Amino acid sequence: MKNNSLKEIVRAFRKYDNYILSTHISPDGDGIGSELALGFGLKKLGKKVTIANSDPFPANYEFLPCDGMLKNREEIKGSYDVAVSLECPGLDRVGKMKKVFLKSGRIINLDHHMSNEFFGDYNYVDDGSAAVGEQVFDILFELGVKLDLNIATCLYTSLLTDTGSFSYSNTTRRTHEIVIELMKYGVNPSEVNQNVYEVSSLGKIQLLGRAINSLCIDERYGIAWTVLAKKDFEDTGTNYSDSEGIINYARSIKGVNIAISFTEIHGERVKISFRSKRNEIDVNKIALFFAGGGHKRASGALQKGTVNEVKEKVLKKTIEVIKSVSAGFKLKPVLGACGTLTKKKR
Ligand code: 5GP
Fold it and tell me: Does residue 1 fall inside a structural domain?
């Protein structure tokens, strides 16, 4: 299936009336912000919009407006003209919403992952967009939707979170231009930032402590990784969404090329997240090897097995990938204050 142009996508949105919108399992700020913004925009055009996801919003996104559009997955009955997936490289990523998608008249796939499988009847995939929120901004503009504070706040949240507060390499001039537009509608960056990032529970900070304690480093190849077990979540009264962002601590260590987090989740499965600090190292390739996907600098996968089994396989593959590209840069051992951490075996 092919990628459609913005004009073709906009034509499709004009044509159909009854929509269901979903983002990926374990939804994040981009998935949530972009689906809400699109929902508000379509409603302004007189369309019927329902939003339902496989998993609930993490608490730090509950401040976002949703004007009755958001329903529990269990409440979804009947069929829809169009099911729109936001930020899902494959249809499996909508999780338990997949059945609803397959029953709908057609699927529109909006995504910015290079690993997208073009599973929609309409696909608008742009890996040059920092966030799907940028694509939704363009769609709403082309549809002639006048933005307002609700839409602008949702889009701002999407851009803020997927660019690591406008710090990752995906942040472009275009990202900032969109932010300028959004601020014209009254978005307050400091307020959004506080709502998203400064509402941690004590348990979340304790979980962070456990992750930091688990930190290990492969000095030679510059790989830093953390491990969170089910027990860590149980003891701190937290859930998977509370581990969002923890990988950035491993990534922030000087000399680290790749940061990885291993998180035990239910059903004997391990969620793996990868972050690359070097343009030469494409972690999407590593994630694809483990049936996951994502971007060059940020990707993820899910594997069955114990943490130790998964960790062993993943570290082996990661070293292989680093070796294969390391002719392009000088491998420098990670030394200094964190050197002691490397002695720890976990
Ligand atoms: P995170 O590590 O924050 O969960 O995800 C980083 C990036 O990789 C995101 O763009 C996310 O959509 C993608 N990603 C994470 N896990 C998976 C996965 O299991 N499969 C695929 N295809 N992409 C994933």
Answer: no
